[in-house]
Amino acid sequence: MTKKTIGWIAAGAVATVLLAILLVTASATYNMPFGMMGSTATSSGSSYGGMMGDEYQLAESAPMMDSAVATRMMGIVPPEMPPTAGTTAAEADQKIIRTGFLQLTVGSVAETSPQIVALAAANGGYVQSSSVNEDQDGRHSGDVVIRVPSEKFDAVLSSIKAFADVVNVESTSGQDVTEQYTDLEAQLRNAQAQEAQYLEILKKATTVEETLNVQQYLSGVRYQIESLQGQIKYLSNATSYSTVSVSLSEKPGLRAPTKGFDIVSTIKEAAQALVAVVQNLGVALVWLVIVGGGIVVPVGLVAWGIVSVVRKTRNKKR
Questions:
Q1: Where are the alpha helices (DSSP H) in 73-207?
Q2: What is the mean pLDDT of the chain?
Q3: pLDDT band, residue 284 (cuts 50/70/90)
Q4: Could you tell me the pLDDT band of residue 127, with boundaries at 50, 70 and 90?
Q5: Are strands 126-134 and 140-149 parallel, antiparallel or unpaired?
Q6: How far apart are CA 7 and CA 135, in angstroms?
Q7: Please, which pLDDT band fits residue 225 given cuts at 50, 70 and 90?
């Protein structure tokens, strides 16, 4: 092998190493495998098919369109995505769901329940549910659930306790949903920005296939937006209004006569019970005579006949 040939081989080896280094560097820069370095890395950032820049962000956050449709839609470029970074949970206003429970003994449930309802209305709240029951002794019990503005939660709780003779149970709790709320808001902004991009793409669609393809993904984004808005609305309501549940009961007392005591009605009920017993005995007697007679008489006749035959047989043998 001549020196000239060896030189060419060495030069080729050096060139191959340098090319490999360039490919590795380019792959690390664009975060792409070697197989995608051909057409994608050299595509223009303004091309929809290249999926570079803002278009690449859209592809990451939404389902990919059909490749054939996307290829025919070259040049249809969505606008720049607006900033979506929202406030962090630490920077946002605290979103806390507050609830309270009171078990009270009061002088009169019938009087205290309307007072709690009126208190809720006076503080800008409303009644979620209310019920009053009366037992056999004439004592009342009830449950009232109200929603009041969160900033008036403590004041309303104190006012309700003032209605009681005894506060048997008092408990309050708070659930911090600030992080969840801010996360939903950020997701909503992203979805709305994505919707705007699809609308721009839809304007530039030129065929029925392109239009239907874009509308399919646009419908998915809009469904996501409605879902996020519903969750945000629920959390807003849950944190804006606090829930107070109140269980009411009255002190036990001696009441004579107790509710529902009526001697005349009791006598009538006892007499009616006696009539029912006599009727049941008569029904049983009828069944015994008819059904029992229909069974006992034939069986008795058969038994008498057998006994008679046996006796006659014995007498003949003697």
A1: 109-122, 153-161, 178-203
A2: 75
A3: confident
A4: very high
A5: antiparallel
A6: 110
A7: very high
Q: Which of 153, 167, 155, 146 is nearest to 98 (CA)?
A: 153
Task: Give the Cα separation of 62 and 51 in Å (integer).
Answer: 13
Instruction: Please give the backbone phi and psi of residue 253, each rounded to the nearest 5 degrees, phi first.
Output: -150, 165
Q: Is 143 helix (H, G, I), strand (E, B) or coil?
A: strand
pTM above 0.85, yes or no: no
Neighbouring residues of 209: CB distance < 8 A, sequence distance ≥ 6: 69
Q: Where are the alpha helices (DSSP H) in 66-108?
A: 67-72
- Beta strands 241-250 and 96-106: pairing type? parallel
The two three-digit tokens of residue 68, written as one number: 């054939």
Q: What are the angstrom distances between the C-alpha of 253 and each of 77, 133, 214, 250, 258? A: 81, 17, 74, 9, 10
Tokens of 77: 């470029």
Are the C-beta atoms of residues 99 and 173 closer than 8 Å to each other?
Answer: yes
pLDDT value, residue 254: 55
**Count of other CB atoms within 10 angstroms of residue 250:** 21
Which pLDDT does position 256 carry in this prediction?
A: 52
- Give 53's contacts (C-beta < 8 A, 6+ positions apart): 45
Per-residue pLDDT tens over the stretch 239-267: 999 999 999 998 876 555 555 556 777 78
Q: Strand, helix or coil at 284?
A: helix
Indicate if the pLDDT at residue 35 is higher than 80.
no
**Separation of alpha carbons 250 and 232, rounded Å:** 41
